[in-house]
Design goal:
This protein is mainly alpha-helical. The chain contains eleven helices and two strands, in the order H-H-H-H-E-E-H-H-H-H-H-H-H. Strands 1-2 form a two-stranded antiparallel sheet. Strand 1 and strand 2 form a beta hairpin. Helix 1 runs antiparallel to helix 10 and helix 9 crosses helix 10. One of its GO terms (biological process) is amino acid transport.
Length: 293
């Protein structure tokens, strides 16, 4: 007989894990879903930011979540420059489909090899004052190393939603996802808007990195664990739907955790990706397909 308390804790832990998946997927949802830029190097950028954050924390003693917020603007500017390069060599010439994909694949390999050469194969980990503490709400246990990153993830995702809906630039980003040429009639440069949006996506990778390094150790190849998951979440949500990405990430986290609890960790990715295939069979456009922001 299944223990109800065990199931409830598995669901709650899955929701906390889903929040990590959500902030990790949100940047790719912006670049891939809204800008049609298949940045498969996004998880590698997240791992790169994790190494940067770990190094800064060891020198300054700052909390990794706070450090992620401080590092995010620098990664945002890096993303703007990266998009300019991508646009100049691939998008502008019309070769963005395969050659652009190869560009980001090469960038992913470059990041991984560089991290191995500089840091070796050792894992990076940041000890926090709250890492070993747990908040108990009746029978439900909430480890602070999962709860605080989840809260920060939701806060940043909420800020992204508000920015996209309320600010002029945010509304322009949503518009460029639907009709880039229409922006020219409003004297808005769609390339500049896309560069800003891509910068936001890379900044989100840095924020996800701060959450990740609190939750678990990271090595140079940790991006491999996430690339399939975040691509699946973005596709499951329906390309371009940020609320859908949040819902799909939470669903993914709960299903993975429940499967690991009931049948063992080896089953969790199989069940989660099985759900993806089942949903896409019934609804190829994803859960929220066609709904932007």
């Amino acid at each position: 007989m299944l223990d109800p308390v065990l199931i409830v804790n598995a669901i709650v832990s899955g929701l906390l894990l889903g929040c990590l998946y959500a902030i990790a997927s949100m940047g790719l949802a912006v670049s891939f879903g809204m800008l049609d830029v298949v940045n498969i190097a996004h998880p590698a950028m997240m791992v790169l930011a994790s190494f940067v954050i770990a190094g800064l924390c060891s020198q300054s003693g700052l909390d990794p979540l706070l450090t992620a917020l401080l590092v995010a603007p620098a990664f945002g500017f890096l993303g703007v420059g990266l998009y300019r390069v991508y646009h100049h060599f691939f998008e502008q010439s019309g070769d963005e489909a395969m050659q652009g994909l190869a560009f980001f694949f090469g960038l992913m390999i470059l990041i991984e090899v560089s991290l191995v050469l500089i840091y070796g194969a050792d894992q990076r980990w940041v000890e926090t004052s709250y890492g070993g503490h747990t908040l108990s709400l009746g029978p439900v246990d909430l480890p602070l190393r999962m709860l605080l990153p989840a809260m920060m993830s939701l806060a940043c995702i909420g800020a992204l939603f508000v920015w996209l809906r309320r600010s002029f630039t945010g509304r322009a980003v949503a518009a460029v996802a639907q009709d880039r040429d229409a922006l020219r009639f409003l004297a808005i440069n769609p390339i500049r808007i896309k560069a800003v949006a891509f910068g936001i996506s890379v900044a989100l990778a840095a924020i996800a990195a701060g959450c990740l390094i609190v939750v678990q150790p990271v090595d140079a190849h940790s991006g491999h664990v996430f690339i399939g998951r975040i691509l699946a979440i973005v596709i499951l949500a329906g390309l371009g739907s940020l609320p859908g990405t949040l819902v799909a990430a939470l669903l993914f986290g709960v299903i993975e955790n429940l499967a690991a609890t009931l049948w063992g960790p080896a089953w969790s990715p199989a069940v989660a990706f099985g759900l993806l295939l089942a949903v896409l069979t019934v609804r190829p456009q994803g859960i929220f397909g066609g709904a932007h922001t």
